[in-house]
Amino acid sequence: MTHSKTKTSFYRRLYVAYLIDSGANTVPAIQDATGMPRRTAQDTIVALSELDIDCAFVGATKDGHYQVNDWGAIQKSWVRNNLSRIKDVLSY
Question: Which residue of 12, 30, 49, 71 pairs with 41 in a disulfide if CB–CB is 3.0 to 4.6 A?
């Protein structure tokens, strides 16, 4: 089944926020978990703010990590409960 760019973009952002919140909180860790290119992972992290997900980089450049401070209007439990569906849409 083909999904719209809007849906896949939205789900990609939700999945990246979930990964960050679950401990895969560096760009290389996100790449390992998803197979997405570095630039896509970086762009997705930056785009989290468009969903009012407050994500910040913590620590020094070489040994820091991202952390989700606030999920905004998104319910983290919904993402967790629908993780297999999200991964199916994204083909992960």
Answer: 30
pTM, 2 dp: 0.94
Under 8 Å between Cβ of 18 and 79: yes
Cα 51 from Cα 29, distance rounded (Å): 22
Give pLDDT < 50 ranges for the chain.
Answer: none
Instruction: Tell me what pLDDT residue 1 has.
Output: 74
CA dist 67 and 69 (Å) reads 6
Q: How many CB atoms lie within 10 A of CB 47?
A: 16
pLDDT > 70 in the chain, percent: 100
* Cβ pair 27, 41 in contact under 8 A: yes
Is the distance from CB of 52 to CB of 73 less than 8 angstroms?
A: yes
